[in-house]
Amino acid sequence: MTTYLLAGGGTAGHVNPLLAVADGLRARDAAADVLVLGTREGLEARLVPLRGYELLIVAKVPFPRRPNRAAAVFPRQFLAAVAHVRRLIRERGVDVVVGFGGYAAAPAYVAARRERVPFVVHEANAKPGLANVLGARAAAGVGTAFAGTPLRGAREVGMPLRREIVELDVAATRAEAAAHFGLDAGRPTLLVFGGSLGALRLNTAFGGAWRDVLDAGWQLLHVTGQNSDLPDPGAQGYAVVRYVDRMDLAFALADLVVSRSGAATVSEINALGIPAVYVPYAVGNGEQSLNAAAAVRAGAAILIPDGEFTPERVRAEIVPLLADGARREAMRTAAARTGIRTGTENVIAMIDEALAR
Question: What does the entry give for GO biological process (predicted)?
């Protein structure tokens, strides 16, 4: 029996691909022992046990960004975390470690190396995090969701995706999706969403331009986010929902998507071959713009900067796209060519290669 230790967490961008790989390993070999290493503070503390996996806890030790008291105590705290993970590796008989970035990954990489256990790194974002930059230097395999991610020895393997996305039959599900949202399966649909909490910029823009979308002969499925107070005008063909727990149905209905460009979002949209307009989140280190870059270069998507996304920009750039079927079809073809649905299988193949060595 093989024992796998999957390390990562903090945000959905780390936890979701980790869980996709865990599910893939379990589906392939029910006898495999799949363990997850995470922190008490991250999203994994809730999601991992819900999925039925054992969560092993390691202390959250942030890398210091400036010389201060946290920097002074960092070496001792980090080495303690590494020692803790080394004990877990020995006690649980771990055969291979797989890291997805985040606070749990860094000590896992160091511990695996010191215990002479092979480890594999997966990076979801086009701009890698520090833990994965360091881990890639000694990893048995390094996989990235996007081509061109600057990690040593990396190869593009795609994003491990949720099964409901990988297995989605858009044509067969469209009628069910339309009924779910109270829309017409026979009319083209624009899907707008900004994540579970919403995106104020997207909500404001379409709050002022939704009539233009409907006047173009399209429907609008607008996922505003749980924190939004955008009013629902109750117009036929305009579905305003705060939260969607069946994004597979939303995607099945979408003929064009306007969204943020988180790594998982871009990967799912590409995998399904949906044309997209990305409005990268402007806060952070610019990773959302980089995540969308390959799709834009391929002709599968358009990028509009957050600060320029207004009702007027919707009317000037998106509404004409709704009327240009030839351009959207070219974008769809490019997205399908760019997208990867086999990210989970590709990461598992890397794990097998590491074990075989």
Answer: carbohydrate metabolic process; cell division; cell wall organization; peptidoglycan biosynthetic process; regulation of cell shape
Burial class (CB in 10 A: 0-12, 13-18, 19+), 173: middle
CA distance 188 to 256: 8
- Would you say the pTM of this structure is higher than 0.85? yes
CA distance 1 to 18: 20
Domains of the chain: 3-161+341-356 (3.40.50.2000), 167-338 (3.40.50.2000)
3-state secondary structure the chain: CCEEEEECCCCHHHHHHHHHHHHHHHHHCCCCEEEEEECCCCCHHHHHHHCCCEEEECCCCCCCCCCCHHHHHHHHHHHHHHHHHHHHHHHHCCCEEEECCCCCHHHHHHHHHHCCCCEEEEECCCCCCHHHHHHCCCCCEEEECCCCCCCCCEEECCCCCCHHHHCCCHHHHHHHHHHHHCCCCCCCEEEEECCCCCCHHHHHHHHHHHHHHHHCCCEEEEECCCCCCCCCCCCCCEEEECCCCCHHHHHHHCCEEEECCCHHHHHHHHHHCCCEEECCCCCCCCHHHHHHHHHHHHCCEEECCHHHCCHHHHHHHHHHHHCCHHHHHHHHHHHHHHCCCCHHHHHHHHHHHHHHC
Tens digits of residue pLDDT in 143-174: 999 999 999 999 999 999 999 999 999 999 99
Annotated binding-site residues read 11-13, 125, 162, 196, 288
Query: Residues within the annotated binding site for UDP-N-acetyl-alpha-D-glucosamine?
Result: 11-13, 125, 162, 196, 288
Q: How far is CA 288 from the centre of its chain?
A: 11
Each residue's pLDDT tens digit, 106-128: 999 999 999 999 999 999 999 99
The one-letter amino acid at 357: R
31: its two tokens: 């006898």
- Res 228: pLDDT: 85
